[in-house]
Known about the structure:
The protein is mainly β. The protein has 2 helices and 50 strands. The strands form 13 sheets. Strands 4-3-2-1-7 form a 5-stranded mixed sheet, with no helix packed on it. It is elongated and about 90 Å long. The two termini are 30 Å apart. The model is unreliable at 4-9, 67-107, 259-268 and 423-430 (pLDDT under 50).
Amino acid sequence: MIDVPTGMLVRPPTIGHVVSVSYAADGGTIASGGGGGRVSLWDGHSRAPLSSVTVGRPGTAAYVGSTPTATRCQSRPGTARSTSSTAASPTGASSLVALRTDASDTDSQITVFDVETGQVDRVLSLPSYPFAVSPDGATIAAAADDGSVGTDVVLADAATGQPTSRLRGHTGAVLDIAFSSDGTEVASSSADRSVIVWDVDSGEPLRQFRGHASAVPSVAFEPESPTVLSAGADRSILRWDLSGDRQFIPLHASTAPLRTNPAFVQFAPSSVPSPDGSAVAYVSFDVSETNSTRVTLQVLDTDRRRTSDPVDALSSTAVSWHPDGDRFASTGADGFVRVWDRRAVEVSAERRLGLSGAGVAYLPSGDELVITGDDGFVQRLDAESLENRDRPFLLPGVEFDQEPGLVASGDGRTVAALVHAADGEIGTGSDPDDRLLLIDVVAREARVDVALGFEGAQAAFSPDGGRVAVAGRRGQVAVFDAATGDEIRRPTIGHDGTVVTISYAADGVMIASGGQDGRVALWDGQTGALLSSVPVGRPDAAVFVAFTPDGQTVSVITVDGEAYELDTRAASWIEFACFTAGRNLTRTEWRDAFGDRPYRETCS
Length: 604
């Protein structure tokens, strides 16, 4: 027995084959299950043995959990496998569950015994080891009995044994399961080296944690704090923060999920963070049963920690924030340009244009808007009156797309647009003839026209306007000289799938990108070299990024309506790496976390 704060051994190991241990909620009693189908009770304070009972025949193994109703234990006859389990006991000292498994037995069942008499109370048809019982005794969570490997968690009624839901997310065998003290969450650890925390009511994954170098055979909730403990086969014990307050990437705000129709993944929401990252404008597409599409708009306010109700976006699909962050402009296929109030999420000004709007961008001064039309026209507008600053001009041979839109340079006169090949199909993974256009709206011409050689998705200018970073639909980022169009850094893969957003730091030293793979990648702002990559929020859910004005913090927004803050300073990464690993990182671990940065000891 080990004291968690100090890591000191407080009781010498007990001789015997013990495969499972369970603590009572008050800490007064410990139950252990071992070989020969034997369950023992121990004093939780003195660690002295209290009693023991045999619930199975010789050659079986007992795995202990708990139930708060009566003095009972549960077991499953069979021959023991080489496995182990830990389950937290919610209530009294003598309320426990013993589970025995047989790798060759196809009939999964749990036999409920009375601990004092050893008599059978009832038999439940449930998946086998590992398992946990909810604090109210109403639910049992167990690894799915799918043959040799069970990658799912099954929630079942503890009285009837009937499954109520199935939790899917692990890619390796589930090795341990634990309920939170209030019973609203359940955690599972797996051979895939991860821990997943699930919402019991919805069955949805809330968090997935990765940090172990190998399988994770044990997981438990801390009773008095929003923390999960996991013990890995790599001989490390890691503590995971559920509140977001102590994470490496702290959770700044969490709101209701954004409105999307998951049946139509091609209409996933797009997101545009405000300049300081304190708000996000989401554009979503809802498809009706008659295949008509409705465009809706929501604003996530991370300062007030809430998401607005969806409003009809009136066909506006391209969005640009004003530099003051209090309003944003939109345009779309209906030919209108609209200005929206951030707080009220309603139109404060609008004007019908003579073109179908494909892109919109505020210039850095905030007093001028640039609109591109899908027919190749470019138009400058006064940001307040929405009247023309100049007559529109045409770029011959250009068809602007509503995606990925338009971005303005810091020089106050240049905008970047990514143009897809006229005969190409977006998202096919082919090698299209996509182009990067740098358009001088004062000189009324495209002064740079670069053939990308890959499908462009997003672009961002460096603060001085000297470089432009272009992200692609296959996870790549390339950097170009904005004056000549010369390639500074060839496309480098940093994401698995489309890069949905990219942002330069205020000093131009670093670039951040967010992908559909749920990862944030950091790049050298001068050379374009990949520095590091880190997962945020739920895996495989798009994340959108924006550097805050301090140039060192990245606001990270997910399609689930969560907002995080990422400190990009290397010192904070190294400090956290030492805390997580408890030792210096190996060179391989360093390379996985920090890319090409020179190796340093993390725990000096």
